[in-house]
Design a protein that fits this description.
The complex is a heterodimer.
Chain A lengths: L1 H29 L2 H16 L3 H23 L7 H40 L2 H7 L4 H39 L4 H10 L3 H27 L5 H30 L1
Helix pairs in contact in A: 1-6, 2-6, 3-4, 3-6, 4-6, 4-7, 4-8, 4-9, 6-8, 8-9
Chain B lengths: L1 E10 L2 E11 L4 E5 L6 H8 L7 E6 L2 E2 L5 H8 L2 E4 L11 H11 L4 H14 L15 H13 L5 E5 L7 H18 L2 E6 L2 H7 L2 E6 L2 E7 H5 L4 H8 L15 E2 L1
Parallel strand pairs in B: 3-8, 3-9, 6-7, 7-8, 10-11
Antiparallel strand pairs in B: 1-2, 1-4, 4-5, 9-10
The chains are: A mainly alpha, B alpha/beta.
Chain lengths: 253, 255
């Protein structure tokens, strides 16, 4: 039992050390601005712009369901304009960031881990190093930076889409006018609702890209290794999103 | 000059190099032969710092590779071209982008970059493929582009990792010719690892055999061809039955 515990502790410490080393290497890579600056723009398009369809798709249906659920819960208890309040609060503070984050953990995290993992097992990362490039400057920093910058943009649009979709549902399927919906939306609205969601979005982007990059670059073996790293990247990213969600709730709310 | 001095390397319980010692003289091509999985590629990767020895050292032009700081290591890598076993071309980039990547890193002026791309592709008979992607090329063509990417850097050293493995005999012969041509025209020092004896005889000035983690025998091509060492003989003749009589001692013999 004692040996089991000490082995687990040692393994945990070793993993923390490897993560620390990875962060330090990423920081070192960030110093080579001339290498990553152009590549970051490309990644912003791939990670941000190309993620919009899935993010907006999720936001549309989240808005619809939230409006209907609010109506179902509130009918007969509180005024119906609270539908606007619930849709606004829930979408901006929680559902747009977290649901989009979880979806992008799959889309972006898996993409990064699989791409870098394939590059690792086919010696493309070694080739990059022999050409005197630091893989952290060339591969990791552009992806981490792009995800950190673009997740808030994608999630801001998802927030807006979720609210619009909730409003559209409310005026068409519920007995609610635009004036009432907007009244409810503004009732407890604070600017903090928006920036709180965007801070979360930024942290999700950072963590998803970092996990995807590390899992990709530490891939061993062939196709099976790439599959394993990709799967682990998605699972760990999803877990970290939920942990960060709770962390920000404790710290900022 | 590249010098391996008593290099030991293990991966977990598996000992790969156990006192690997070898000198690669300037201006010559040294070929390291040996069975698959004996650590030839591992030895090669130590030269550019992709791997660090557990003990011992690899020196390039007097500098010990694993003791170099980041900037010095990058400077060293700028002087070494590396041709990978499966070419390791960047599959999201065109042939031109693959070749220009290293040149941009060396801050070669844009006008000269175009010239170097054209020259290096011409040297490997791959002119006109600049805008193609690696997926559109055959295995042999990819290896040629890999060589072009290495020589475009005008390196002092070129390291070849199994340059002919997986190729048909004719394509292998073409790759061998290209390696000889690159050395003659550019005067670079070459270190080749291979288990293809035809390639070793064609491109090498000296041949060293890696066996059980150490250099079993090293000498000029003619000397290796006439060797009486049973292990080396067995390998270069490709006679598995000779293994029964072979002396499996790992004494190094320098001819």
């Amino acid at each position: 039992m004692y040996k089991y515990v000490t082995n687990k502790v040692a393994l945990g410490l070793k993993r923390m050390g490897l993560w620390g080393r990875f962060l330090v290497d990423t920081g070192r890579g960030a110093r080579e601005v001339s290498v990553w600056v152009g590549l970051t723009a490309v990644q912003m398009r791939r990670i941000g712009v190309q993620s919009l369809p899935i993010a907006l798709f999720i936001a549309v249906f989240t808005g619809i369901v939230l409006a209907l659920l609010s109506s179902y819960t509130l009918t007969g208890a509180v005024p119906m304009y609270f539908v606007g309040t619930l849709v606004g609060k829930a979408v901006m503070v929680e559902l747009a960031p977290v649901l989009t984050g979880l979806a992008l953990a799959g889309r972006v995290g898996a993409n990064i881990a699989a791409e870098l993992g394939t590059m690792r097992v086919t010696e493309q990362v070694d080739a990059l190093e022999t050409l005197a490039y630091d893989p952290f400057s060339f591969l990791v920093v552009p992806r981490v930076l792009a995800a950190t910058l673009m997740f808030p943009v994608v999630i801001a649009l998802a927030m807006a889409t979720g609210v619009v979709s909730g409003w559209f549902t409310a005026i068409n399927l519920l007995d609610l006018s635009t004036v009432e919906f907007v009244k409810g939306l503004r009732l407890f609205h604070e600017f903090k609702d928006i920036w709180y969601g965007l801070v979360k979005a930024m942290s999700f982007g950072f963590v998803i890209a970092l996990i995807g990059s590390r899992n990709g670059l530490t891939t061993r073996g062939g196709a099976e290794g790439v599959g394993l790293s990709t799967m682990q990247a998605v699972v760990l990213s999803a877990q970290m999103i939920l942990v960060l969600d709770a962390f920000w709730a404790v710290v900022l709310l | 000059m590249i010098t391996f001095e008593d290099v030991h390397k293990r991966f977990g319980p598996k000992k790969v190099l156990e006192g690997f010692t070898l000198e690669v003289p300037d201006g010559e091509t040294t070929v390291v032969i040996g069975y698959s999985g004996t650590g030839k590629s591992v030895a090669l990767k130590h030269v550019v710092g992709l791997l660090k020895p557990d003990s011992g050292s690899v020196d390039v032009d007097g500098g010990t590779v694993h003791k170099l700081d980041r900037a010095e290591l990058m400077a060293l890598r700028s002087t070494v071209g590396f041709v990978f076993q499966f070419a390791a071309l960047f599959d999201s980039m065109t042939v031109r982008e693959n070749i220009t990547l290293g040149l941009k890193r060396q801050r070669v002026p844009p006008r000269e970059i175009d010239e170097r791309v054209y020259e290096s592709l011409a040297l490997v008979d791959m002119d006109g493929t600049e805008d193609r992607y690696p997926i559109e090329l055959s295995g042999g063509m990819r290896k040629r582009v890999g060589i072009a990417r290495a020589i475009a850097l005008r390196p002092r050293y070129i390291l070849y990792d199994e340059p002919t493995s997986g190729l048909d005999p004719v394509t292998s012969a073409v790759i061998n010719q290209l390696m000889v041509r690159a050395r003659e025209r550019l005067g670079v020092t070459g270190l080749v690892v291979t288990h293809d004896m035809s390639s070793a005889y064609t491109v090498g000035d000296r041949i060293a055999m890696l066996y059980n983690g150490v250099i079993r025998q090293v000498g000029a091509v003619e000397q290796i061809q006439k060797t009486h060492d049973p292990i080396v003989r067995q390998f270069i003749d490709g006679r598995p039955e000779a293994a029964d009589d072979a002396d499996r001692a790992t004494t190094q013999v320098v001819l």
